[in-house]
Design goal:
Shape: elongated
Order of helices and strands: HHH
Low-confidence stretches: none
Number of helices: 3
Strand content: under 5%
Number of domains: 1
Radius of gyration: 22 Å
Number of strands: 0
Helix content: over 70%
Length: 96
C-alpha cells in the first residue's frame, strides 16, 4: 500500500471518528432506530410489507454506523501498518 493511500485512509478514519463522536449524528441515528422499532412493534399482524420496509430501514441505519466504524478500524490498521513499515527492523545476518 502506498503512503498516499495510507494517508487517505487515515484522513477518512479521522473524519469517520468525528462523525461517530458528533452528538447530532448520534442523536439522529438513535432517534431513527427508536422510531423504526416503534413502527415495527406497532404494525398490524397482517402488515407484512410495512414491517418489512421498517426492518429494511432499521438495517440501513445499522449499516451506516457499521460502515463508519469499519472506516475507523481500517484507518487504525493502516496507521499501524505504516508505523511498522517506517520503523527500522533489525536485520538478521547469518554467522558462518
Amino acid at each position: 500500500m502506498t503512503t498516499g493511500a495510507r494517508s487517505d485512509e487515515a484522513e477518512r478514519a479521522a473524519h469517520a471518528r468525528e462523525l461517530l463522536a458528533d452528538p447530532l449524528l448520534r442523536e439522529a441515528l438513535a432517534a431513527l432506530s427508536a422510531r423504526y422499532l416503534a413502527g415495527i412493534r406497532g404494525c398490524a399482524p397482517k402488515d407484512d410489507l410495512g414491517r418489512y420496509r421498517l426492518t429494511v430501514a432499521l438495517n440501513v441505519v445499522d449499516a451506516v454506523e457499521r460502515h463508519l466504524r469499519a472506516v475507523v478500524e481500517t484507518g487504525v490498521l493502516s496507521e499501524a501498518q505504516g508505523q511498522e513499515l517506517a520503523a527500522p527492523k533489525p536485520r538478521w545476518i547469518p554467522r558462518f
